[in-house]
Structures are given as structure tokens and as C-alpha cells.
Amino acid sequence: MAVKIRLQRHGKKGKPFYHVVVADSRAPRDGKFIERIGSYNPNTNPATIDLNFDKALDWLSKGAQPTDTTRAILSYKGVLYKKHLLGGVKKGAFDEATADAKFEAWLSEKEAKIQGKKDGLAQSREEARKAALAAEAKKKAELAAAIAAKNTPPAEETETVEAIAEAEVPVVDEVVAEAPEVAETPTVEEAPAAEALATEATSESVEAPADEAPADEASNEETKEA
Asked: What's the chain's average pLDDT?
């Protein structure tokens, strides 16, 4: 029976989550499996890998063949390198203590790289957050400046309004100062004079026929005598 180390898909659409399983190569991808030896979550950065190192190494030693993706996972966790070192011990290239020392050195270097990547990602996120805050503050300042500029009239218009106001104040004062003189015009005193003139004219017009009446009568008498 050919045995494979492969991924079994779980999770929801767009966010897959995988189990690392040992299964018969003839079984469906999401079907029955022999043993589950870990999990793989590609939704995080870096990806989260939880692997039973000893079981994965044991199955590799028994001849289980990993798929391409699981091979990359096993290499990332150092399982393939450990298998290579154990092969060197069996061949007599070095002893088991040397193999363990080499593996520990490789593991330390690998963990330092992973931590460096995590620190770099955290720093990038922090810088992106600060840049977003700075951009938001700048946008708010520009908006406030635009509102203030909209509500504030231009300097030329302000100076013109002030100049007109200053020029109109003396005119108003002069009008107010001249108002009493206009009010003191002797319109009431002229009324008796006008009435006197009207009375004299009326009396003359009334008296004139009385004076002229004898003259008319004398002319009539002379006409009769003739």
C-alpha cells in the first residue's frame, strides 16, 4: 500500500484550513486517513504550522511520500533535514551527537529568521498605522482650513466694507446735525402772513365793486338825460 503525507482541506470558502494527514494514496482527498500529524493555516502571516515532529519523521523513515506542499512544510519545520542527518549517522559520516548539534544550530538559525520576519511585519504594521494616522490628521486639518476659508470673507472685501462704513459715518452725523435746522423753518409763522394777504385780496375784491357802483350809476343817468 502506497502511503502519502498530504493535506486535507477544511475551513470555509476563501479561508481554507488544512490538516496534515497520513493516508492511502488511493483514498479521496477529504476521505479516510490513517493518522493526523499536524495542521496548516495559510491565513496568517507567517503561516501557522503545527506539526508532530517525531511522527512525521517516523512516517518518512517508513517510506511515506509527501506531496509538494507537505514537502515544503516538512522542510520548513526541519523534518527533512533531520532525516538527512540520520542518514549520515547510519552511513558513518558522523556520530549522533554531531548530528544533534548540527540540527540545533540549524533550528536556532531558523527560529531567528522567523522571529526577524515577525518583527519586520510588526514594524511595518506599526509604520502603516502611524502613516494612516498622520494622513487622517492632515486631512482633518485641510478640511478645517477649507471651512475657515469659506466662512471668512477675503481681505479686500473686508477693507472695502470697513472703508464704506467709515465714509458713511460722517454723512449720517451731518444729516443728524442738520435735522434740527430743517425742523426750525418758520413754516407756522408764515401762515398768518399768507392769511393776511389772502384777506386783503378778498377785501379789495369786495370793496372794488362798491366803489365802482356810483360811477356806473352816474354814467347811466347821463345817458338818460342825453
From this structure: 76
